[in-house]
């Protein structure tokens, strides 16, 4: 049981919530996620990355996009309401170190999980370049928060309604072409965006972390629904991840697995994803 | 596996029981041996393919008494020796025959807190019933006294009275014990430790309690209300439950001891990562671990299509790989979810199958097709990455392996393909990595199972472990046996603490 302390609409379909979760706030580290259910008995377990935490208040922040029934129900809750099931922090924390120059790339809602990682990378002494992007201006989130952290900040939109008219892969490519090239990249966003970020950095041999948000049921290493091919191995996102070497991840298989229940789900989620696939593929 | 209706079975039992009761002389051994083994009344084999109701409906009073009268009350209790928790089997059965159900219930509960569960899911044919004198004399283990069914009868009888006797709890000691996981091992530890007067907190990662009994074993074998009732008993004697709490992540295991004031911890985190076959096509859409398939259907209630938010794959032709109870559960659940054809593919023969004989029988009655001496070679997908067929190989049995079972050997060139849209992999589990990942102090073996000594003590002082996290995938009753041993160790350590403290004061 966790009370909603604060709720804010960030864009057309994106919401921010601060939840009362003192234990999770204390234990969580950058890169970790929670699982919640809006309905205890018949609800679905949805994994969401922790965008921020406040140990003093005993709260965590989640940012989510309305993509299906469960997130619609979540968005319908208000300050003071209780979320019946909240468990975490889950997954392995991001390995934070002083790597040198780190490029953090966030696409759409992926900027939320990127925020604590960029913050931690900055605190560890890295030079942090941040690229954030979205389809249009209305879908951009956390611009001010990310700008504060960044040594260099680039914002782009697909339609040019704000910042540079480009996909995030364009400035990423330019950064890779610099001498010296970045020491590391972290890309978080829709699967297709992460796939193309990894493809962008591959020829330059810039180590690229991605954070995967696969289908998941228990989230504690029991069901195996979250498995992905990473290199020659099968990995489990909930206990081996969520972060992996983007150059090793089989994104095509992961994307097809994300669509497992497509014929059952009556939401617009997949259509959005489809559009992004097409947009990106057209751009490549 | 009866083909008589519930009513027919009961009618026969009533008549025979009346006869026996009206006899003037006491029953002799040969009279007892003549009483036919009582069949278990079961739900119709066609009707049950569309519901989650329990398949075995349980004995009536007459059937239970008759079955109990078959027990010879042997002096040498071979049945007890094979029970992992050493229930006085002839003792409780005699009470049933005498019509004293409360005493029967009390007798079982001296050692087993969860009889309504064990009566349903224990593999009795390889435990208590295996060496039953009656079964041996009749040269048929299926004709042994139906100890499991009687245990279930007694437990169900007590529940139906609405007045379940609570176990006695000794005065509060002020000691605190944390239990990680609310599966069978954890529940037994909770009961045994609480009865000594120690405070007990059970931490459960899921939103519902019961562990594998809730997410894994389907309701047609073990109804949720029975788990609820057993947990309610624990709650009533003062056991505290914390759900949605992942020890290792929400709180480190060592913090429970060092910061939160627990005097001992039991780790019963259960099954871990599902094993896969490591064959081509295993990550296609439509390939599931049995854990995932069953968790969706059971815990997340996806069986209630339209009501539950968790989706379940729309399967028409299903292959289940494996021959254990989990494979049977998954196959039978697939039937109930509307699959038209369900195959169980197992690389040895029926004789080597680890599943309970009763479950295999039930599966066959429900139209599941068994393919023995076969195994998957690879899985084919369509252009969308969805399963469309599976290529299999045929096997023959060779020399016995380490487990004593004859090793299946592949027949070269025997490939053939079956059309399926779903493959459910039920070939076992690895260990759960969460506790070991976050508790470097704890030693694990090369498979990641926690190392324990003969008292279930781990390599860290005050931390005990048992069940699947120690043994790999085992049965509910073996997990309970480990739980009992761990509880004894914990109770002993805490008693020593209390004694030391008393001396100091």
List the main descriptive attributes of the protein structure presented here.
heterodimer, A: 284 residues, alpha/beta, Elongation Factor Tu (Ef-tu), domain 3, Rossmann fold, 2 domains, 7-stranded mixed sheet, 9 helices, 16 strands, 31% strand, B: 505 residues, Fumarate Reductase Iron-sulfur Protein, Chain B, domain 2, FAD/NAD(P)-binding domain, 3 domains, 5-stranded parallel sheet, 36% helix, globular
Topology summary:
The complex is a heterodimer of chains A (284) and B (505).
Chain A: E1 2-11, E2 14-20, H1 22-27, E3 33-37, E4 46-54, E5 59-65, H2 69-75, E6 82-83, E7 85-90, E8 101-107, H3 111-123, E9 127-134, H4 143-149, E10 152-157, E11 164-165, H5 169-177, E12 184-188, H6 191-201, E13 208-211, E14 227-230, E15 233-236, H7 237-240, E16 243-245, H8 251-258, H9 269-283
Parallel strand pairs in A: 8-9, 8-12, 9-10, 10-11, 12-13
Antiparallel strand pairs in A: 1-2, 1-6, 2-5, 3-4, 3-7, 4-5, 13-16, 14-15
Helix pairs in contact in A: 5-6, 6-8
Chain B: H1 6-22, H2 29-34, H3 61-69, H4 78-81, H5 89-97, H6 101-109, H7 115-121, H8 133-137, H9 147-161, E1 176-180, H10 184-195, E2 199-203, H11 212-215, H12 224-236, E3 240-242, H13 253-258, E4 264-267, E5 271-274, E6 287-289, H14 290-297, E7 317-321, H15 325-336, E8 341-346, H16 357-365, E9 369-372, E10 374-381, E11 387-400, E12 406-410, E13 416-419, E14 422-425, E15 429-431, H17 433-438, E16 463-465, H18 468-471, H19 476-504
Parallel strand pairs in B: 1-2, 1-4, 2-3, 4-16, 6-14, 7-8, 7-14, 8-9
Antiparallel strand pairs in B: 5-15, 10-11, 11-12, 11-13
Helix pairs in contact in B: 1-3, 3-5, 3-9, 5-6, 5-9, 6-9, 7-9, 10-19, 14-15
């Amino acid at each position: 049981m966790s009370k909603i302390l604060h709720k804010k609409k960030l864009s057309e379909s994106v919401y921010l919530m601060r939840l009362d979760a003192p234990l999770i706030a204390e234990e969580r580290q950058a890169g970790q996620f929670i699982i919640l259910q809006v309905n205890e008995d018949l609800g679905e377990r949805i994994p969401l990355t922790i965008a921020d935490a406040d140990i003093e208040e005993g709260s965590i922040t989640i940012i989510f996009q309305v993509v299906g029934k469960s997130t619609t129900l979540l968005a319908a809750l208000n300050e003071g309401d209780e979320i019946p099931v909240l468990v975490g922090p889950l997954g392995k924390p991001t390995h934070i170190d002083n790597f040198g120059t780190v490029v953090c790339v966030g696409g759409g809602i992926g900027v939320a999980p990127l925020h604590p990682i960029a913050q931690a990378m900055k605190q560890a002494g890295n030079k942090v370049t941040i690229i954030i992007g979205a389809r249009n201006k209305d879908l951009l989130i956390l611009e001010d928060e990310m700008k504060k952290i960044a040594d260099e900040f680039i914002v782009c939109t697909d339609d040019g309604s704000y910042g540079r008219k480009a996909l995030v892969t364009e400035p990423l490519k330019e950064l890779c072409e610099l001498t010296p090239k970045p020491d590391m990249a972290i890309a978080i966003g829709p699967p297709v965006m992460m796939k193309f970020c990894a493809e962008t950095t591959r020829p330059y041999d810039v180590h690229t972390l991605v954070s995967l948000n696969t289908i998941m049921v228990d989230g504690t290493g029991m069901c195996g629904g979250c498995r992905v091919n990473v290199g020659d191995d099968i990995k489990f996102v909930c206990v081996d991840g969520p972060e992996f070497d983007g150059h090793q991840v089989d994104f095509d298989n992961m994307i097809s697995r994300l669509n497992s229940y497509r014929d059952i789900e009556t939401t617009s989620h997949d259509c959005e994803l489809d559009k992004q696939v097409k947009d990106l593929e057209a751009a490549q | 596996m009866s083909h008589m209706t519930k009513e027919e079975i009961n009618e026969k039992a009533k008549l025979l029981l009346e006869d026996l009761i009206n006899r003037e002389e006491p029953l002799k051994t040969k009279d007892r041996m003549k009483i036919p083994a009582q069949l278990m009344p079961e739900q119709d084999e066609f009707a049950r393919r569309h519901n989650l109701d329990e398949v075995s409906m349980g004995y009536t009073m007459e059937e239970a008494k008759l079955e109990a009268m078959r027990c010879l009350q042997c002096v040498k209790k071979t049945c007890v020796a094979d029970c992992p928790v050493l229930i006085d089997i002839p003792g409780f059965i005699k009470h049933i025959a005498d019509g004293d159900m409360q005493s029967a219930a009390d007798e079982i509960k001296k050692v087993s807190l969860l009889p309504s569960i064990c009566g349903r899911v224990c593999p009795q044919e390889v435990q208590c019933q295996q060496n039953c004198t009656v079964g041996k004399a009749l040269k048929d283990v299926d004709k042994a006294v139906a100890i499991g069914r009687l245990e279930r009868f007694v437990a169900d009888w007590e529940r139906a009275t609405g007045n379940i006797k609570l176990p006695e709890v000794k005065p509060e000691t002020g000691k605190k014990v944390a239990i990680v996981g609310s599966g069978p091992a954890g529940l037994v530890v909770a009961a045994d430790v609480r009865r000594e007067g120690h405070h007990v907190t059970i931490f459960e990662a899921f939103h519902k309690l019961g562990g594998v009994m809730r997410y894994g074993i389907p309701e047609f074998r073990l109804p949720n209300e029975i788990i609820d009732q057993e947990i309610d008993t624990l709650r009533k004697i003062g056991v505290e439950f914390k759900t949605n709490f992942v020890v290792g992540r929400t709180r480190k295991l060592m913090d429970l001891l060092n910061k939160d004031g627990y005097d001992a911890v039991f780790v019963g985190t259960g099954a871990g990562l599902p094993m896969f076959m490591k064959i081509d096509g295993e990550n296609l859409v439509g390939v599931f671990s049995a854990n995932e398939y069953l968790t969706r259907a059971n815990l997340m209630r996806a069986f209630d299509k339209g009501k539950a938010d968790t989706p379940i794959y729309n399967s028409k032709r299903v292959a289940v790989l494996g021959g254990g109870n989990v494979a049977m559960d998954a196959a039978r659940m697939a039937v109930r979810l509307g699959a038209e054809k369900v195959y169980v593919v197992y690389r040895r023969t029926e004789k080597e199958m680890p599943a309970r004989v009763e479950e295999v029988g039930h599966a066959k009655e429900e139209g599941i097709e068994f393919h023995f001496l076969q195994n998957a070679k690879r899985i084919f997908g369509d252009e969308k990455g969805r399963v469309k067929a599976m290529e299999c190989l045929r096997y023959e049995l060779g020399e016995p392996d380490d487990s004593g079972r004859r090793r299946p050997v592949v027949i070269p060139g025997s490939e053939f393909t079956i059309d399926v849209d779903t493959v459910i992999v039920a070939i076992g589990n690895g260990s759960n990595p969460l506790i070991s990942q976050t508790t470097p102090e704890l030693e694990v073996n090369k498979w990641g199972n926690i190392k324990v000594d003969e008292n279930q003590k781990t390599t860290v002082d005050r931390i005990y472990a048992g069940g699947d996290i120690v043994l790999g995938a085992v049965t509910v009753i073996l997990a309970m046996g480990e739980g009992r041993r761990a509880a004894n160790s914990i109770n002993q350590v805490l008693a020593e603490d209390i004694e030391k403290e008393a001396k100091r004061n």
